[in-house]
C-alpha cells in the first residue's frame, strides 16, 4: 500500500514539474516576443516607457501586465500573440494614466525644473526643462509627475515644477502672445520696477505669456498663475524669434556666452550645464531642437569623419569610443571647440596649442553636421514642432 502511494505521489510530482517546466518555457517564449517588440518600438528607455511582462495561466493562456507610452507597441504584442493562437488577458496600462483625467499636458513653471530618473529627490538627475516648455504628463506618484519633453525625453518632475492642464488650455497657450527671455539670467518683478519684489528668477530660453506692455516692461502670466513684469530689453517676441534662420556665426556667439559656466550632470540651462546640455541649449536659442544626450546626438545629422580638415564651424564633435560616446563639444573654427568639462571652456584639437588636451583629442570619434540636416531625425526647428505650434485641426480654431 505504501509503495503504491509513493508511486502515485512520484507520478503526480513528475506531472506537476513537467507542467511547470512547459509553462515556464511558454512564458519565456512569450516574454522573448515582447522583448523583440520592445527592441523595435522602444529601444531607448529615455524616450519611451515600455515595462511589459507576460505571466502564464497555463500553456496557452497568458496575462500581460505593466505599462507603456506606446499604444502601437501594445497592439503589436497582441497581434503577434493572437497569430500564435494564444489566449491573452490584456492588463497593460497605456500612459497617460487614466487617473490623470484630461490634464495630461503641462507647462514648466520654474525658471529651470529638474527631471530625475525616479520620483525621489535623491534620484540621479536626468535632465532639466525651462519655464514655458510644453510637456506631456504620463503618470503621477504622490507629488511627482512623469513627464515627457518636446525632444521626447522622459523623467520625473516635482509637482511644483509643472502646471498641468488639458488640451484646450495648452492650445490656448500656443495661440497666446508669448515672449522668450534672451539674457543669460534675470528676474521677473512684481511691478514694472526693478526695485520691486522678485516674483521669480528667469534664465535664457524661458517662454512667458504676455498680458500687457509698458514702454520698458512686459507684463506676463506664468503657467502656475503668478504674474509679473520683465524688462522688454531682455526678451523677444516668441513668434518672431522662432522664425530665426540658423547662422553659424550667431550660433558660435551664443555658445561663447556660456564660457565659465559650471558643469552639472543633467544640467540644461544658462545656470549650469553638462556637455550635451550645452550644445542643445545653444542650438535651441537659435531655433533648433536637438536630442538630449550625446549618445543620441551622435546618430543625427550628416556624419563627418574624425578629421580636423573635414569639420566646419558648428559641427558637433563626439568623443569616447566607437559605439560608446561619452562627450560632445561644438567646433568653433581654427582648430578650436567649445565644450562643458568641469566648466564651459574652449580647447584646441591642435597638439601645438596650449589649450590642447591629449586625452580628449585621442578619444575623438566623429562629428555631425547639424546645419545641413535640419528637419531630419533628432533635428527639428522650434517653429515646426507641434508642441509649440497651434493644432489647426483643434476645435478652438473656429473660436
Mean pLDDT, rounded to whole units?
92
Inertia-based shape: globular
**CATH homologous superfamily grouping of the largest domain:** endopeptidase domain like (from Nostoc punctiforme)
- Number of domains as seen in the coordinates: 4
End-to-end CA span: 87 Å
CATH architecture descriptor name of the largest domain: Alpha-Beta Complex
Which stretches are low in confidence, meaning pLDDT under 50 for 5 or more residues running? 6-22, 393-399
**Percentage of residues in helical conformation:** 10-25%
In the sheet with the most strands, the strands line up as: 19-24-20-21-22-23
Q: Mind telling me the C-alpha Rg?
A: 26 Å
Structural class: alpha+beta
Sheet-strand content, in percent, reads 35-45%
Number of strands: 25
Account of the 3D structure:
The chain has 399 residues and is of the alpha+beta class. It has four domains: 43-95, no CATH class; 100-173, SH3 Domains (SH3 type barrels), CATH 2.30.30; 176-241, SH3 type barrels (Roll), CATH 2.30.30.40; 248-384, endopeptidase domain like (from Nostoc punctiforme) (endopeptidase fold (from Nostoc punctiforme)). It is built from eight helices and 25 strands. It has helices at residues 2-41, 71-83, 167-175, 238-241, 248-256, 275-284, 294-297, 358-361; strands at residues 50-58, 61-68, 87-94, 105-108, 112-116, 125-130, 134-141, 144-148, 154-158, 162-165, 178-181, 185-189, 198-203, 207-213, 217-221, 227-231, 235-237, 288-290, 302-304, 316-321, 324-333, 336-341, 343-348, 364-369, 379-381. The strands form seven sheets. Strands 19-24-20-21-22-23 form a six-stranded antiparallel β-sheet. A hairpin with a 2-residue loop joins strand 21 (324-333) and strand 22. Helix 1 (2-41) crosses helix 2 (71-83) and helix 5 crosses helix 6 (275-284). The longest helix has 40 residues, at 2-41. The radius of gyration is 26 Å and the shape is globular. Mean pLDDT is 92; it is low at 6-22 and 393-399.
Amino acid at each position: 500500500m505504501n509503495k503504491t502511494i509513493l508511486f502515485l505521489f512520484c507520478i503526480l510530482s513528475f506531472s506537476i514539474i513537467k507542467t511547470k517546466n512547459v509553462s515556464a518555457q511558454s512564458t519565456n517564449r512569450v516574454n522573448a516576443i515582447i522583448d523583440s517588440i520592445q527592441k523595435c518600438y522602444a529601444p531607448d528607455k529615455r524616450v519611451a516607457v515600455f515595462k511589459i511582462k507576460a505571466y502564464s495561466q497555463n500553456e496557452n493562456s497568458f496575462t500581460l501586465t505593466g505599462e507603456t507610452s506606446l499604444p502601437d507597441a501594445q497592439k503589436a504584442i497582441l497581434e503577434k500573440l493572437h497569430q500564435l493562437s494564444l489566449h491573452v488577458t490584456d492588463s497593460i496600462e497605456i500612459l497617460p494614466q487614466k487617473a490623470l483625467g484630461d490634464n495630461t499636458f503641462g507647462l514648466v513653471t520654474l525658471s529651470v525644473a529638474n527631471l530625475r530618473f525616479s520620483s525621489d529627490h535623491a534620484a540621479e538627475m536626468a535632465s532639466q526643462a525651462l519655464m514655458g516648455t510644453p510637456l506631456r504628463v504620463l503618470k503621477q506618484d504622490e507629488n511627482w509627475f512623469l513627464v515627457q519633453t518636446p525632444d521626447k525625453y522622459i523623467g520625473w518632475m516635482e509637482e511644483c515644477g509643472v502646471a498641468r492642464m488639458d488640451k484646450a488650455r495648452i492650445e490656448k497657450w500656443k495661440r497666446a502672445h508669448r515672449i522668450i527671455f534672451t539674457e543669460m539670467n534675470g528676474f521677473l518683478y512684481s511691478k514694472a520696477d526693478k526695485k520691486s519684489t522678485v516674483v521669480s528668477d528667469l534664465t535664457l530660453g524661458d517662454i512667458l505669456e504676455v498680458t500687457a506692455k509698458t514702454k520698458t516692461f512686459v507684463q506676463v502670466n506664468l503657467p502656475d498663475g503668478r504674474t509679473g513684469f520683465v524688462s522688454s530689453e531682455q526678451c523677444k517676441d516668441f513668434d518672431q524669434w522662432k522664425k530665426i534662420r540658423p547662422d553659424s556665426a550667431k550660433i558660435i556667439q551664443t555658445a561663447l556666452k556660456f564660457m565659465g559656466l559650471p558643469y552639472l550632470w543633467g544640467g540644461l540651462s544658462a545656470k549650469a550645464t553638462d556637455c550635451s546640455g550645452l550644445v542643445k541649449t545653444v542650438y535651441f536659442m537659435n531655433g533648433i531642437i536637438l536630442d538630449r544626450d550625446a549618445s543620441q546626438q551622435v546618430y543625427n545629422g550628416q556624419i563627418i569623419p574624425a578629421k580636423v580638415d573635414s569639420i566646419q564651424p558648428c559641427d558637433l564633435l563626439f568623443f569616447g569610443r566607437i559605439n560608446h560616446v561619452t562627450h560632445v563639444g561644438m567646433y568653433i573654427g581654427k582648430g578650436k571647440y567649445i565644450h562643458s568639462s568641469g566648466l564651459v571652456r574652449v580647447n584646441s584639437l591642435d597638439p601645438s596649442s596650449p589649450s590642447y588636451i591629449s586625452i580628449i583629442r585621442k578619444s575623438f570619434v566623429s562629428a555631425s553636421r547639424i546645419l545641413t540636416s535640419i528637419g531630419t531625425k533628432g533635428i527639428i526647428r522650434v517653429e515646426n514642432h507641434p508642441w509649440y505650434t497651434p493644432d489647426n485641426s483643434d476645435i478652438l480654431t473656429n473660436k
